[in-house]
Amino acid sequence: MDKVYIEGLTIQTTIGFYQWEKEIKQKLVIDLQMGWHTAAAAENDELAKTLDYAQISQEIETFANSNPVDLIETLAERIAEYLMISHSIPWLKLKIGKPGAVFNAATVGVEIERGSRS
Ligand SMILES: Nc1nc2c(c(=O)[nH]1)N=C([C@H](O)[C@@H](O)CO)CN2
């Protein structure tokens, strides 16, 4: 299967386990790979037949800001579920980094893979 991807999507959102984190916005960096058969869109040069990475980037930011949670694990799971259902995506790999979370690490985060590639 082919993929449509988004790399390094940077959003500012409320996320974190501790009380002080619920009162601020922090940076998350998101990488997303989505399984898709891209040939159908290429055949007649049609955006409607593929996954619109611009629209999906906006949806991720809106989703994160509308659904504040403690853990990036929870956010990853919920974004994955939302995208797979709303766009009929059969497989995706989603990585969320929280670069400001550990002062002496470049970044920390989670990566999940959901669905089937076949
Ligand atoms: N595996 C995780 N570990 C931690 C998370 C998380 O979301 N997943 N979150 C925190 C705090 O919110 C942290 O980012 C701030 O100190 C700690 N560990």
TrEMBL record:
Keywords: Folate biosynthesis, Isomerase, Lyase. Its EC number is 4.1.2.25. It catalyses: 7,8-dihydroneopterin = 7,8-dihydromonapterin; 7,8-dihydroneopterin = 6-hydroxymethyl-7,8-dihydropterin + glycolaldehyde. InterPro entries: Dihydroneopterin_aldolase (IPR006156), FolB_dom (IPR006157), GTP-CH-I_C/QueF (IPR043133). It comes from the Bacteria. One of its GO terms (cellular component) is cytoplasm. SMART domains: FolB. Pathway: Cofactor biosynthesis; tetrahydrofolate biosynthesis; 2-amino-4-hydroxy-6-hydroxymethyl-7,8-dihydropteridine diphosphate from 7,8-dihydroneopterin triphosphate: step 3/4. GO terms for molecular function: dihydroneopterin aldolase activity; isomerase activity. Residues 4-114 form the Dihydroneopterin aldolase/epimerase domain. The keyword Isomerase applies. GO terms for biological process: folic acid biosynthetic process; tetrahydrofolate biosynthetic process. Catalyzes the conversion of 7,8-dihydroneopterin to 6-hydroxymethyl-7,8-dihydropterin. Belongs to the DHNA family. PANTHER family: DIHYDRONEOPTERIN ALDOLASE 1-RELATED. This is 7,8-dihydroneopterin aldolase.
